[in-house]
């Protein structure tokens, strides 16, 4: 038994059976990283195009971020929100100054799931309602309320929920019954569907509408321009708050705005964030309009949310993104990757669609010359890419979408290397299938 297989055996003895790992019975241990590369416990080095499930947003072992963490660690690790935390206040100021939210207030937690839970607490309290409109294909977390608002069967562990959820259209055109419509007509039909749902499927006093501007686990479904603005116009008719879930799409990763929802011309009442803000350290939070944030009448604190270490890292990440113009880089390299992937689609009939924004790119795999999802192929491509030195992710409603999400510091040469590797991996699998 190798050291890696021994480690996996230990993992299986003490971890839950439902705790998924990639690569079947050969999961990978990552032990170190630098830039966009990581080293495994097997001694191999890989080009990392999944970035810790989008959390390692600016790369591994970034000196400016490491130094900020070390400086704070040498002073104080923890205090709780019962005391003033300078780095937390500084981070909140940075976020409030950049968020497309009127008169913003910021509250920090420890994860994306907890951030969405907080948004649900705020909106259900303010509206005195537990009715929520979420989107088909959405993923909002693994906790009780967030699972209840998740629109992917594979991530819905229970039908029990404190929320009553209505699922609206998500703008996923590839499998939409409205796919043949032009953008304006498509948005209008989806808006009318939303209005009908509100008037016939709810009591009218809906707590909120929650949406990911670019769906993450849903396979990077990317609605047409104007989609969310059309939804917001309907929501405003009923005074329903718009919550933008930016756990994956925030901080400029989309390459077209600091928060994904800005691209659609919408100013939401609340934004949830997490993941990449601290480049992998545990952090999350909500930035919301003052009246919404202050609607709670009971006491509330956060023991570790916005702790000194994570907040110091968050400040350093935002400064690094802006000083290195990484949003522009996300747009440039994202365009290079999407063009390259669409060229691959011309050679590989198993690529049904390439979509996304910036460095959030989905490659939907299907059975040849059809739209039938090919989840087994996605698993084989993941493993073949790993064997060739490239790490990518997967998702989608059927587990058939490759997720290409390198850190925002990725270079053009690394993007071309990833494209060549993916091309070789798919070609090898095609040859194997033909034998």
UniProtKB/TrEMBL annotation:
The protein's Enzyme Commission number: 2.6.1.44
Pfam family, one: Aminotran_3
InterPro entries: Aminotrans_3 (IPR005814), PyrdxlP-dep_Trfase (IPR015424), PyrdxlP-dep_Trfase_major (IPR015421), PyrdxlP-dep_Trfase_small (IPR015422)
Keywords attached to this entry: Aminotransferase, Pyridoxal phosphate, Transferase
GO terms assigned for molecular function: alanine-glyoxylate transaminase activity; pyridoxal phosphate binding
The keyword Endoplasmic reticulum is annotated on this UniProt entry: no
Superkingdom assignment: Bacteria
Swiss-Prot/TrEMBL cofactor(s): pyridoxal 5'-phosphate
Top-level class of the enzyme under EC nomenclature: transferase
Coiled-coil stretches noted in the UniProt entry, renumbered to this chain: none
Subunit structure, interactors included: Homotetramer.
Family that this chain belongs to: Belongs to the class-III pyridoxal-phosphate-dependent aminotransferase family.
Protein name: alanine--glyoxylate transaminase
Organism listed in the record: Mycolicibacterium goodii (Mycobacterium goodii)
């Amino acid at each position: 038994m190798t050291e890696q297989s021994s480690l996996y055996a230990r993992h299986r003895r003490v971890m839950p059976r439902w705790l998924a790992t990639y690569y079947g019975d050969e999961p990978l241990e990552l032990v170190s990283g630098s830039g966009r590369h990581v080293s495994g416990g097997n001694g191999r080095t890989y080009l990392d195009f999944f970035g810790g499930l989008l959390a390692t947003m600016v790369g591994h072992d970034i000196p400016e971020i490491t130094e900020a963490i070390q400086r704070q660690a040498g002073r104080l690790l923890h205090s709780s929100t019962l005391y003033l935390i300078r780095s937390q206040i500084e981070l909140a100021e940075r976020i409030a100054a950049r968020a497309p939210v009127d008169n913003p207030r910021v509250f920090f937690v420890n994860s994306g799931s907890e951030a969405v839970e907080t948004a649900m607490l705020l909106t259900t309290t303010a509206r005195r309602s537990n009715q929520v409109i979420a989107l088909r294909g959405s993923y909002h977390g693994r906790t009780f309320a967030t699972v209840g608002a998740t629109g992917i069967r594979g991530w819905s562990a229970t039908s029990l929920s404190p929320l009553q959820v209505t699922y609206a259209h998500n703008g996923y055109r590839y499998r939409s019954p409205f796919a043949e419509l032009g953008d304006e007509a498509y948005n209008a039909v989806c808006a009318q569907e939303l209005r009908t749902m509100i008037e016939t499927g709810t009591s009218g006093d809906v707590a909120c509408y929650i949406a990911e501007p670019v769906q993450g686990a849903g396979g990077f479904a990317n609605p047409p321009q104007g989609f969310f603005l059309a939804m917001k116009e309907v929501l405003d008719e009923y005074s329903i708050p718009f919550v933008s879930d930016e756990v994956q799409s925030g901080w400029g990763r989309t390459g077209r705005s600091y928060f994904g929802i800005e691209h659609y011309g919408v100013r939401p009442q609340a934004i949830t964030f997490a993941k990449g803000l601290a480049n992998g350290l545990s952090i999350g939070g909500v930035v919301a309009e003052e009246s919404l944030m202050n609607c709670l009448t009971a006491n509330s604190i956060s023991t570790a949310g916005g702790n000194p270490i994570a907040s110091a890292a968050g400040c350093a990440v935002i400064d690094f993104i802006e000083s290195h113009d990484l949003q522009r880089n996300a747009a440039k390299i994202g365009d290079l990757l999407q063009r390259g992937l669409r060229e691959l689609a011309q050679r590989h009939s198993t690529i049904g669609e390439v979509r996304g924004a910036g460095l959030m790119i989905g490659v939907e795999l299907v059975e040849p010359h059809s739209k039938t999802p090919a989840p087994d192929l996605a698993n084989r491509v993941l493993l073949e890419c790993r064997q060739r030195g490239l790490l990518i992710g997967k998702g989608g409603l059927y587990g058939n979408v490759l997720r290409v999400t390198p850190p925002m510091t990725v270079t053009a040469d690394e993007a071309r290397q990833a494209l060549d590797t993916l091309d070789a991996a798919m070609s090898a699998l095609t040859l194997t299938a033909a034998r």
